[in-house]
Write a structure and sequence with these properties.
The chain has 133 residues and is of the alpha+beta class. It is 28% helix and 29% strand. It is built from four helices and seven strands; from the N terminus they run ααβαββββββα. A hairpin with a 4-residue loop joins strand 4 and strand 5. The longest helix has 16 residues.
Length: 133
């Protein structure tokens, strides 16, 4: 059986192959596409520029119709590579609110959720690695 996903697409300059790489990527690789920049104070504190967004992080939307809104990430969809932020909602036809999907590159992490032990350990290891440079 032919493989669905190939890392060889990553090295291509053709747009169609790049889009195919992103669309067919497995979830452990799509997680890397969910990186968002840290704000200036977090950058200075931790010593690196970006991290993947997680539920519970507080983010500020930097582009689009919801620009400037700051809220908690309520849901992260790796399949769609979108983030859902509390406060960024649209009205449905029936009058109810629906969270609007936003790409992770269009948000800036303002506050990290460090309740997960593995994530906090990972951040500390990255912090020490950057400090040793």
């Amino acid at each position: 059986m032919k493989k669905e996903f190939s890392k060889a697409w990553n090295s291509s300059t053709q747009g169609r192959k790049q889009r195919k790489y992103v669309a067919k990527a497995p979830l452990h690789i799509k997680h890397k596409f969910m990186g968002a920049p840290l704000n200036a104070t977090l950058k200075k504190e931790y010593g690196f520029r970006s991290l993947p967004v997680r539920s519970g992080d507080t983010v500020k939307i930097t582009t689009g119709q919801f620009k400037g809104i700051e809220g908690k990430v309520s849901k992260v969809s790796l399949i769609k590579t979108k983030v859902y932020v509390e406060g960024a909602a649209i009205k449905r036809a029936d009058g109810s609110d629906a969270l609007y999907p936003i790409h992770a590159s269009n948000v800036e992490i303002v506050k990290l959720d460090l309740s997960d032990k593995k994530r906090s350990e990972k951040i500390e290891s990255l912090k020490s690695k950057e400090a040793s440079k």
